[in-house]
Amino acid sequence: WVHYLALVLWVGGITFLAGVAAPVIHRSMASRALAGELVGTMLRRFNILEIGCALVLLVTSLSARHFVFERKTWLLAIFIMVLTMGISTCFYSFHLTPRMRTLKEKVPTLDALSASNPVKLEFDHLHQVYVKLMSFNMVLGLAVLYGSVVIFKS
Q1: Of 64, 56, 114, which Cα lies nearest the Cα of 85?
Q2: pLDDT, tens digit, for every residue of 126-136?
Q3: Residue 7's pLDDT is what?
Q4: Could you tell me which of 74, 70, 72, 92 has the C-alpha nearest to residue 82?
Q5: What gap in Å lies between CA 55 and CA 6, rounded to an integer?
Q6: Cβ proximity of 10 and 141 under 8 Å
């Protein structure tokens, strides 16, 4: 039960933030900078939840080896996918986010910069990497969900 709860919070949270909250906030606010700040604050808080979910999933995956007698390779695959998701989350939480925040602090607003400005180019690149990693985590999370259903159903 705890395993599924952590998984649903993580994958559902990514889906909600990326598919619902961020687009609505960016479309409805007059300033892209304010919208970015709001979404950034939500993501930083969500990153804490993601790390907690990763820890719970690692523990539940490890402890499952005591009562899963068939499909042990699936269990190993789940553990590796969750570990990969956790590493990815730590990378964008502790490496990308601080770098993006530092870049934002260098200029009054990224919106005012030309598309060829080095600060804006670097920020946009880091943002793209962040989005790709979060999307990667969502896909892996769905794979973990499928694998978990297959293992714990048997």
Answers
A1: 56
A2: 999 999 999 99
A3: 95
A4: 74
A5: 9
A6: yes
Q: Please, which pLDDT band fits residue 69 given cuts at 50, 70 and 90?
A: low
pLDDT of residue 16: 95
Contact in structure between 2 and 129 (CB atoms under 8 Å):
no
Contact between 140 and 84 (Cβ < 8 Å): yes
For the stretch 26-45, pLDDT in tens is 999 888 888 888 999 999 99
Query: CA 79 → CA 102, 128, 142, 150, distances in Å?
Result: 34, 27, 13, 14
Q: How far is CA 107 from the centre of its chain?
A: 26
Sequence-separated (6 or more) residues with CB below 8 Å from residue 56: 2, 3, 5, 6
**DSSP alpha helix (H) spans, 29-117:** 32-64, 72-91, 97-106
* Residue showing tokens 């990693």: 133
